[in-house]
Amino acid sequence: MFNPPNAKSFFEKVWDIVLQIPAGRVSSYGQIASMIPPDENIEPARMRSLAPRWVGTALRKTPRGKSIPWHRVINSQGTISFPPGSPQAEEQRRLLEQDGIIFDSSGKVNFRLYAWEGPDHDYLLHHNLLPPKELT
């Protein structure tokens, strides 16, 4: 299942959250997913397991012309999810390095240095979102 129930609404939430990530910070697919309340049509455990993939789907389906900083979302291991050496991986790394992100010798981003803590409390309340999980 690559599309969530109410995909349009889910994708729009993802895009709006990703727009909040400042340059010099990264988030993960799971952290973004953790902010979106479970859909009433899917059991919470299933939502938790699938929602990070849906975040990736949302980023792949970003409409042309919508300036979403997709490159600031990496996987929970602190690495780029595209295949190493692929044009997409090289582009994401280049954009992250342009933002000031430094990778270690194994290609990882140190979450202690670059993790985004999430939007502020007022933003979460205004958008009916949950506090994000911490990146470790």
Could you give the order of strands across the largest sheet? 1-2
Q: Kindly, what is the distance between the CA atoms of the first and last residues, rounded to a whole number of angstroms?
A: 28 Å
Question: How many separate domains?
Answer: 1
Under CATH at level 1, the class stands as: Mainly Alpha
Report on the biggest sheet: 2 strands, parallel
Give the topology, please:
Layout: H1 7-18, E1 27-28, H2 29-35, H3 44-60, E2 73-74, H4 87-98, H5 111-114, H6 121-126
Helix pairs in contact: 1-3, 2-3
Fold and architecture overview:
This protein has a single domain (7-126), classed as Arc Repressor Mutant, subunit A. Helix content is 43%, strand content 3%. It has six helices and two strands, in the order αβααβααα. A two-stranded parallel ribbon has the order 1-2. Helix 1 crosses helix 3 and helix 2 (29-35) crosses helix 3 (44-60). The mean pLDDT is 93.
